[in-house]
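Support request, please re-run this one:
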Amino acid sequence: MIGLVDCNNFYVSCERVFQPRLAGVPVGVMSNNDGCVIARSNELKALGVEMGTPAFELQQWVRQGRIRLLSSNYELYGDMSARVREVLEEYSAGVEPYSIDEMFVRFDGFDDATTLALARTLYRNVRRFTGIPVCVGVAPTRTLAKLANRAAKKRPEYGGVCVLAGDDDETRHLLEQTTLGDVWGVGRRLVERLAIQGIETAWELRCADPKAIRRRFSVTLERTARELQGTPCIEMNDSDEPRQRIMTSRSFGRLTGEPSELQEAIRQHAQRGAEKLRAQQSHARAVLVFLKTNRHRKDLAQYSPSIVTELPEPTDDSRSILAAAQQALDAIYRPGYRFMKAGVMLLDLVDANREQLSLLDTPDHAADRERSERLMSTLDELNQKMGRGTVRLGVPRQNAAWQLRCAHRTPRWTTQWGELPSAKA
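Re-run finished. Output below.
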């Protein structure tokens, strides 16, 4: 059996842990640059505010004090997610993060009664030790566990915990009431194509011939059908595989065409990309740099260039990657344009432990590589211990145009010494 632990209204719940006065208040969390609503409390959903609603459309309610809109605080959310995972790992050795607010948990080797008791323990203790409310769904497969979790969240009779055996009347009743659009991995276009075949519910997909599903659609949908039948077919191995390219980019808080600000943005993205590269023990052979103007601003001149710069040799050294990125920026920059986004992509990645050295390699080159490895290792260790950005190449200016706009961000209560919560007696 496998369980899915899903945090309820995760971003808003993280904010409420440190601001209990937000309980019962309609709260929304906005996207980067405070653009639109990306997370809602149940109270905000009840007011009819949809996901993706532009923040400016809600300003009147904000001024009237009817709702609260907060800037996204990803540093806080990431830390709270890690705390939830630590609680789950106390009860299971098989915890597989699926997203920042969802984690699969192995329940192997338990009988039905013990499985239900353990699921209820997770439901209580995650809330008790982190303050984050969760729902727990348990079933023989991941697809059924997703449906069980959805039932635990939507149906009060489950009390936040739903355990499905996979082949009983309860499972059948739930699948008969579940439309295909609510099945994990079945998108809107697939729903329309299946409807033509007379398949409209999860139960009807479960009863369909898997081989016929594979012939008419895909092996992925065949796996979904078999998972609905209770046969495990989906594994979570992808997160362990190194990425083939690493992208670091961000939309600016304000439009800018200032060369120094663009250089700062590219420098930060290049350094962050190099950190990710070292974390997965890869080297990059090339660097792509791009700039984008706002295509929706018809009153402004448009120019969105990109260029690839080859590195002299595969590397994960921040200094070499940054130098190549700056060179690329100099090649594509043109004055007279106001840009809204910049990014750096590291390409043609190779495993650092299997890199093919040059026949012309010399002892001096080997010594340089060793010094570079020690320097980057020290830099990463300091940033890991003291916080990201403690040691970096170049110091970005505060309030630069490329910095994210987050006027309503709450303190990073758990990760920044200067923003720790204080108590008054």
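The longest strand covers residues 282-293. The radius of gyration is 25 Å.
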